[in-house]
Write a structure and sequence with these properties.
By secondary structure, the protein is an alpha/beta fold. The chain has two domains: 160 residues, 3-Layer(aba) Sandwich (Alpha/beta knot), CATH 3.40.1280.10; 55 residues, tRNA(m1g37)methyltransferase, domain 2 (Trp Operon Repressor, Chain A, Orthogonal Bundle), CATH 1.10.1270. 36% of the residues lie in helices and 19% in strands. It binds adenine.
Length: 236
């Protein structure tokens, strides 16, 4: 096996707010995937590629207008400092933008098959179009709304993709029954106490009859999907 495979999947994140990503990867499943060496994250501060005393990464738009534009030369230099490029490989470069392909479970599954990928977080008004044309291979949106920068979107992508990597989830967390992974919403779940504010747990769940429980769960899953997200059933 080659070296990059041995360390599991790796992602390089380009951002002007590296601390946002740094703190995100210290928790939960992402943290554990890193500890198990199934996944690694390289966080690159775009400002480290600035060349002036003020570490400038943006400038005003040609033609006028409000807002600032991230400079293509700085962003390209930053990208080339990422591990895949340093090691002579050309990775998929995902730019986070509301103009991109919308993230869903099947897109997350596709990304989870890559050995490595790069996430570029935009800020300000835009990034220079020439950077997009020359370096971005994929544009990804987390939904039809605008957030203030790509960082929160990058966290969503990293979370959704990392939990799909083999060995990351334990049996209890197994993604197979997750909402969307099988194209349906998850069934309802209950824990103790058996009666809460007058409401009892469904009898079947305390019956000990595992095949009946399985049957009940698939029926509920289908019912919920019909009720809340009928569009998911039509996609099949
Ligand atoms: N940056 C700003 N809005 C975004 C969105 N909806 N998805 C991804 N990146 C974004």
């Amino acid at each position: 096996m080659d070296e990059k495979k041995m360390g599991g999947m790796s992602v390089s994140v380009l951002t002007i707010f590296p601390d946002m990503i740094k703190s995100f990867i210290k928790f939960g499943i992402v943290k554990r995937a890193i500890e198990k060496k199934l996944f690694s994250v390289e966080i690159i501060n775009i400002r480290d590629s600035a060349t002036d005393r003020h570490r400038t990464v943006d400038d005003t738009p040609y033609g006028g207008g409000s807002g600032m534009i991230i400079k293509p030369d700085i962003l390209a230099a930053s990208l080339k400092s990422a591990k895949p490029f340093r090691e002579g490989r050309i990775p998929r470069v995902f730019f986070l933008t509301p103009q991109g392909r919308r993230l869903d479970q099947s897109y997350a599954n596709e990304i989870s098959l890559l050995d490595e990928y790069v996430l570029v977080c935009g800020r300000y008004r835009a990034v220079d179009e020439r950077f997009r044309e020359l370096y971005v291979t994929d544009e990804l949106s987390i939904g039809d709304y605008v957030i203030s920068g790509g960082e929160a979107a990058a966290m969503v992508v990293i979370d959704a993709v990392t939990r799909l990597l083999p060995g990351v989830l334990n049996d209890f967390e197994s993604g197979i029954d997750d909402s969307f992974q099988n194209g349906m919403l998850d069934c309802p779940w209950y824990t103790r106490p058996e009666t809460f504010e007058g409401r009892r747990v469904p009898d079947v769940l305390v019956s000990g009859n595992h095949s009946e429980i399985q049957k009940w769960r698939s029926i509920k899953s289908l019912q919920r999907t019909k009720e809340k997200r009928p569009d998911l059933l039509n996609q099949k």
